[in-house]
Amino acid sequence: MSKMKIGIDATFSLHGGSLGHLYNFIKYISHDYDRQKIILYLKPDNLKILDQTIQNKCTIKLIKLSSYGNFFRILWGQLVFPFLVRLDDIDILFCPGNISPILKTTKVKSQWIANIGPFCKDMYQGNSIFTKILLIIYKYIMLLSASTSNAVIHQANYSKQLFEKKYKFKPSNQYLIECGKDEFYSPDLKQIKNSNALSQISKNDLLYVSHIFPYKNVTRLINAFIKFKCNEKTNTKLYIVGKIMNFEYYESLKEIIEENQLQNEIIFTGSCSKEDLKFAYSICKLFVFPSLCESSGYSLIEAMSCGAPILASDKTAIPDTCKDAAMYFNAYDEDQLLLNLTDLLSSSEKLKIMKKNSLARSSEMISYKSAARIFLNIVEANYQKEC
Q1: CA separation for the pair 300, 277 (Å, rounded)
Q2: Minimum mean pLDDT among 31-35, 41-45, 103-107, 223-227: which range?
């Protein structure tokens, strides 16, 4: 084990849950590997995201070409990276950003499937032709690179079954590791007063947390909430937390809100600190997650860890993540979403039970430390086989 050298590909864009995932994996992998044995191939933009403690635990190599967009990242990853890791004498290559080099030049190559978007038809809606073409290319690179990997790690059984049943991957090379939970998140009603609107959320309010893309299905959530406000005399507000990733889609959401004069009732907060999120998850009346496509859902795990009652769509891996902790609705049925919202928000007893269910499900989920240890056991066992 002491002779093994591990390379980690961090040339993909880091934000939200993927940032926490990579940070914690590097943190716990470095417990077993010293700095000379961990090489972190890093997109320059990502250097400022990783704190000095993490940087000190790795030998860092900056890859400037990956900063010019996904096309150049793919180009570098397939044509240059396989030979670079060979020159660096890497034994185990870990690619947590969905794809790895198709050409295998290390004893062990592992990739983490953290985004199944390219396999979901809903992901393509609302995007340009260029983006759709990139998604298709990305999909087939995921599949081709997975076919040459010793270990393909899935965050949910949905993804694992997709690869095994639809694309006929050998089960012996497919592994299931829950993405791990951030132990920072736990019930905490300590309010943090700052300039961000999220700090004003109350126990009467709804919460949505994820980046703003068309496939996140925020349109149906907003429309259902508007109908709820028309039917019920209530001061309940909807807080929408996340970075705007598609401005055209964001503008269409704002138009709906302005047409119904609910600018003060539906509040976009942008990205928020972990402290604000912890408070919001803990105090919100209901966490609503209408997404059409998820590999697991980092914000779902965070919400459950803080005891938030959860109303979620029934699509892809979301039921794998929440199991009995959530109430589910047909992601395409706005009326069913409205019906469930009305039912839950009128029943404090149901919400109390759902809070307990969230905490119970969270207690079953492994920590990042355990997830990293399971991962190392898998790749080290594969390394022994190759030797």
Answers
A1: 12
A2: 31-35
**Residue 47: pLDDT band by 50, 70, 90 thresholds?**
confident
Centroid of chain to Cα 2: 32
Give Cα separations from 251 to 102, 157, 222, 234, 269 (angstroms). 39, 35, 13, 26, 15
Query: Cβ of 10: how many Cβ atoms within 10 Å?
Result: 26
CA angle 100, 106, 112 (to 5 degrees): 30
The whole-number pLDDT of residue 2 equals 52
Nearest residue to 67 via CA among 25, 128, 21, 14: 14
Q: What is the identity of the amino acid at 189?
A: L
Distance CA 337, CA 290 (A): 9
Flag whether the pTM goes above 0.85: yes
Cα separations (Å) of 36 from 46, 49, 57, 60, 278?
20, 22, 9, 10, 36
- Residues 230-289 pLDDT 10s: 999 899 999 999 999 999 999 999 999 999 999 999 999 999 999 999 999 999 999 999
Q: Measured between alpha carbons, how far is 306 from 296 in angstroms, rounded to an integer?
A: 17
Strand partners, 142: none
Q: What is the pLDDT of residue 235?
A: 95
| DSSP conformational letter for 165 | I
Please state, in angstroms and rounded to a whole number, the distance separating the CA atoms of residues 290 and 313: 5
Q: Are 205 and 345 in contact (CB under 8 A)?
A: no
